[in-house]
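User: Round two. Same drill as before: sequence, then structure, for each protein.

Assistant: Same drill it is. First protein:
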Amino acid sequence: MYDIKWIRDNADAFDKSRARRGLEPLAKTLLALDDSRRAAISKLQAAQERRNAASKEIGVAMKEKDAAKADALKAEVAKIKEDWPAMEAAEREAIAALDKALAEIPNAPLDSVPFGEDERGNEEVLRWGEPRRFEFEPKEHFDLGEGLGLMDFETATKLSGARFVVNKGQIARLERALAQFMLDLHTEEHGYQEVNPPLLVRDEAMFGTAQLPKFREDQFETFRPSDEADFATAYSNAVTQFFLSHDDSTYSDAQLDEFMRARLDPCFVNYWQRMRGSKMERAAALAEMRATKTNLWLIPTAEVPLTNLVRESILDESQLPLRFTAGTYCFRAEAGAAGRDTRGMIRQHQFFKVEMVSITTPEQSLAEHERMTGCAEKVLQLLELPYRKVTLCTGDMGFASQKTYDLEVWLPGQGKYREISSCSVCGDFQARRMNARYRAKDAKAPSFVHTLNGSGVAVGRALVAVMENYQEEDGSITIPKALRPYMRGADRIGRAG
């Protein structure tokens, strides 16, 4: 997320970075929104100052027994109070309009990212391994899995609809073995700390890593009744955000009140305003709050909870870099994938993935990006799966990314390379959305951290790659040597039963 102050000082550079993504100039529009925000804030502050001054002048006029002046001042104060709600609303709308516009702007690509409109502009960096030459026509994974009686798409459709699978027996064990192998590699050899995070997260976490608001339609959202614990969490988070944003400035009770109104859900605002009232009023407010649903999001990737581990915090520079890994189920609506990969496990609503996340200083982030990508490559090398590494162009890279490497594994059943890992450096783009900072030695003020994320790797797609690359003419699957310790020494998967 961008700082409007930076855009004001670097309007040309901002628009040029948008042009590299094929986007129209936006600096002029954003600065106009910022001017409106500043004007609304100034108008409200001026009205507040005038109301305070006029109130004091009323006392002076009454002491001097100047009734006419006192009445005129009272009328002025009354007019300010009458206009106050409209001015507050104008300020809220101006702030919200700018915040919304800034939240929907993608990150700026680094100069080293190739320019291009779509995946055709991606640049291949290297290839590793030679695709196996088969003496028979290789099958796709779903034909292999169904032929073995261990992969059931038909039953999964009865249970959950399209884009699900039921894996059984040795195929299910092979999928589990892949995840365990990856986690052991990253924790024991690559220096990542294993984390078992929540799979359900709040709006703020999804906003922090930039899944919201732009990609709302790609997510699965859940709802449940609100309660006092939800209010306490929301209230605490809002208060923390307020004081973090006012750490170097004075503030008034009115500013705190306005901040809370803007950030709390309406049902929580109602409860907050009435919780100091009578017992009957509190009970009524509580009943209304419980009738309101609280939403949580199923994570589309463990990037969301892992990156948000440092949200709203100030780290010491000596703690960095932080490296986290997690193996979790992930959930994606695949709203824009109609007609693509409709058979098999390549594109599913629910899938397992091992994720890597790094939190670094700005000076460390580019080297960490190369390191992280190398960790993902090591997985494929140990599994002896041929792959290629590509740099995504400006038209194909993700919303939050400054630069992305994709690893594409060879799938002989399809006769082409398919993405199995994506490793991105995001700079301070996500950190600004999360207010995640660190304090350098002898620094007067904290700075934003840099964040990185990468698949280490997608377990479901790794299962697909192993099945297709290690298939035999009779339909059996040879188990890669690296996975045999996780398969009780088995070296082959044959037909069930």
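Second protein:
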Amino acid sequence: MIDTIEDGYMTGDLASICEPPAKKILDSAEFLDILADRLSAGYSGQI
């Protein structure tokens, strides 16, 4: 999960306090979908 956030994909509440800025601001369902995709793909740093 931390890699996802460090890669710039986060919900709006985190985006408002993070530096550097988010690459993409997601709603909760979208964020969970990204996490699921990365976990099922064995996250290799690419999505």
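The mean pLDDT is 90.

User: Perfect.
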